[in-house]
Specification:
229 residues; Tetracycline Repressor, domain 2; elongated; mainly alpha; Arc Repressor Mutant, subunit A
C-alpha cells in the first residue's frame, strides 16, 4: 500500500498529519507506532517516511499543523484589535475544557525531555512561537497599547508558560470560577498598559517613524507556516 490513487502528495501529507495528531494526543509519543499512523492515514510505512524522516519529525509537524491556535485565530479575525484585548480574550479561555488535540503540545514537551530526537525540533518550534508572540507584543508597543519598557521576549515567555501550563492543569484537576479568573486577567493586562506619560510620548512620536515601527512590528506578528499559542 503506497500513496492512495488519485490523492496528491500534499493531500497525503495532510492525512498523515491529521492521523498523527489524533494518535499522539490520544496515546502519547511513546504509545504511538508509526505503523498505526500510516494505517490510519491509509498509506504504507514507506509512504509515510517519504514525507517525514522520523517519528519525532512527524510529532512536531503535527503540532505545527494541528496544535492550539486560539490567539492566532483571534488576530486573523480582527487584525486591528488592540493586542491587550487579544491577550485578555485568549487568556479567558485557558481554563476551559480542551479537545484531545490541544494536548499535543504537552505530549511533545514531555517527549522532548526524554528523547533528543524530539528535543531539537521542539526547540525550533518553541522558538518560533516565542518569536511570533514577541512580534505581537512589539506591535502592541508600537501602537501604544502595551508598555514600551516591557521585554517582548519576557512577555512572550510568560504567555507560553500560561498556555502550556493550562494544558496540564485542566478543569478536571482544578476548576476556577470564570468571573474570578477574568477579573484577575484584567488586572494583569491593565498592568501591561503604558502610563499616561508614555502614551502621550508615543502619540507625539514622529508620524513616519511610528508608522514604520508599527509596520515592522506587525510584520513580525504575522503567523508562521502554521500553529500558534
Amino acid at each position: 500500500m503506497g500513496r492512495v490513487a488519485g490523492v496528491t502528495s500534499a493531500e497525503t501529507r495532510a492525512r498523515l498529519l491529521r492521523a498523527a495528531a489524533d494518535a499522539f494526543a490520544a496515546h502519547g509519543y511513546d504509545g504511538t507506532r508509526v505503523a498505526d499512523i500510516a494505517a490510519a492515514a491509509g498509506v504504507s510505512n514507506s509512504a509515510l517516511y517519504a514525507h517525514f524522516g522520523s517519528k519525532a519529525e512527524l510529532l512536531v509537524a503535527s503540532l505545527r499543523a494541528h496544535g492550539g491556535r486560539v490567539l492566532a485565530d483571534l488576530l486573523a479575525a480582527d487584525p486591528e484589535r488592540p493586542v491587550a484585548d487579544l491577550l485578555l480574550q485568549a487568556g479567558r479561555g485557558l481554563p476551559r475544557h480542551r479537545d484531545d488535540r490541544s494536548y499535543l503540545a504537552v505530549e511533545a514537551l514531555v517527549a522532548a525531555r526524554r528523547d533528543d530526537g524530539v528535543a531539537a525540533p521542539m526547540r525550533a518550534y518553541t522558538s518560533e512561537r516565542a518569536g511570533w508572540l514577541a512580534g505581537l507584543v512589539l506591535a502592541g508597543q508600537a501602537g501604544g497599547d502595551l508598555d514600551p519598557s516591557l521585554s517582548p521576549d519576557a512577555l512572550a515567555h510568560f504567555c507560553l508558560l500560561l498556555a502550556f501550563g493550562s494544558s496540564l492543569l485542566t478543569a478536571e484537576l482544578h476548576a476556577v470560577d470564570a468571573a474570578e479568573w477574568s477579573a484577575l486577567l484584567e488586572r494583569v493586562v491593565r498592568a501591561l498598559a503604558p502610563t499616561s506619560t508614555e502614551r502621550q510620548e508615543a502619540q507625539g512620536t514622529n508620524g513616519d517613524t511610528q508608522e514604520k515601527e508599527t509596520e515592522v512590528a506587525h510584520g513580525r506578528a504575522q503567523e508562521p507556516d502554521s500553529g500558534a499559542p
